[in-house]
Amino acid sequence: MNLQKLKHAQKQFFSAYPGGFSHPDMIAIGKKHNVHKLADFCVESFAEERFNQPDELLDNWVKVVSRSSMISLFEKPKFKGFINTAMGDERKVLVDSLYEILHGKASIGFSLQCDLLKRDKLAKWTLISAVPAYYRLHDEIFMKPNTVKGIIAHFELPDLLYKPSPSWAFYQHYRAQILQMKAHIDESLKPNNPAFCGFLMMSLPNAK
To answer: What 3-state class would DSSP assign to 147?
Structure first.
């Protein structure tokens, strides 16, 4: 990573928003994204003991995607339609994949989910990363393609070649570098991973 650019981004952010994410403007933006409400919903809805209720669990998955401000309006109805039309074995694989990602072997769940969602061209970074990112706000990363590409390029993250097709290897490597970047930043800029990545996004040269 380019630590000099990261420190410069921090300085510029504090200049515009003293106090970081405790600044009134940042608090107002945060309310629009409902990160903590969705996080609380996910922690309750996708707790390990809830996986014996697959239909309710899949309905809650749709709710998270529908309510997330980080997911494209075009992807939301397509995902809902996919879940609602999934039958038998497909529903079981969806539930099993999410269980593995959250409570088992994440790499296996990631691959299962990708393989099934590819059927309707829904193996998207945003859809696959959303629930884990809300479920573990300080450990997992929401993957928004343009933001990911911008962060890699601007902060010169090494050995990362972005591809639109999700892969566990890329996610694991990108997440590790984002968490490493957090270690060099003031606490007020990293109340959770979505906020920290929002800070990085706002620091990009083409950010509006």
So the answer is: helix
